[in-house]
Specification:
By secondary structure, the protein is α+β, with helices and mostly antiparallel strands. The protein has one domain: Gcn5-related N-acetyltransferase (GNAT) (Aminopeptidase), CATH 3.40.630.30. It has four helices and seven strands. Strands 1-2-3-4-5-7-6 form a seven-stranded mixed beta sheet. The chain binds coenzyme A (COA). The site of coenzyme A (COA) has 19 residues, from strand 4, helix 3 and helix 4.
Length: about 180
């Protein structure tokens, strides 16, 4: 249970359990993949194909937010080598448009970073479109800071901002 009122009622939600809104964060299953891919297509101009999600099945960092009506969002995170060590990498996160702004992105990211911590990494990074202010604000709240830009990272020519956070300094919305 989080102490602060930063997220209103959402702070009463245990990260793993169902919240007051009936949403539960749990590992992704095969039966979730169609819904995940549909949310992906609604969220990105260059969506991951179905098979990309299939490849992450069974990995602890592939989580979905399950609402009574079905999958409402997901996150994919794993670890990657960087400079002789392994770091966490948040590869994808999206919430169904109808569910945005209700704290699910926060819960998904918090759980994904928890999975990375359990894997023993001390830093997490991600790439985000420079223009994606909503996502950048979400990441900023968790303590992610800009490290560098990768020009023309996306197929349409937009640059990616690479953000990173030291996990022992990250924001813990649920205490
Ligand atoms: C980014 C995304 C996952 C956030 O999910 P969400 O469930 O809406 O996030 P939350 O409700 O937990 O909001 C967390 C914070 O994000 C920011 N945020 C959320 N919606 C916002 C909006 N419309 N405008 C500005 N900031 C916003 C706020 O800081 C918010 O905190 P607050 O509600 O206390 O102000 C969601 O907007 C999304 O799926 N976007 C499309 C896919 C995408 O861009 N993914 C990121 C790729 S790098």
């Amino acid at each position: 249970m989080a102490a602060s009122g930063l997220l209103g009622d959402v702070t009463t939600t245990a990260p793993g359990g169902a919240g007051h809104d009936g949403v539960r964060i749990r590992p992704a299953e095969r039966a979730d993949l169609l819904a995940v891919a549909r949310i992906e297509r609604e969220s990105f101009t260059q969506p991951w194909p179905f098979q990309a999600f299939e490849g992450f099945l069974g990995q602890a960092g592939f989580l979905v937010a399950e609402a009574g009506t079905g999958v409402a969002g997901y996150v994919v995170a794993d670890t990657v080598p960087q400079g002789g060590r392994r770091v966490g990498h948040v590869k994808d996160i999206a919430v169904h448009p109808d569910w945005r702004g209700r704290g699910l992105g926060t819960r998904l990211l918090d759980r994904a970073l928890g999975v990375l911590e359990a894997r023993g990494v001390d830093m997490a990074k991600l790439e985000v479109r420079q223009s994606n202010e909503t996502a950048i604000e979400l990441y900023r709240r968790f303590g992610f800071e800009p490290r560098h830009l990768v020009t023309e990272y996306y197929a349409d020519g937009e640059a990616a901002a690479v953000l990173a956070v030291e996990l022992d300094e990250r924001w813990r919305p649920f205490g």
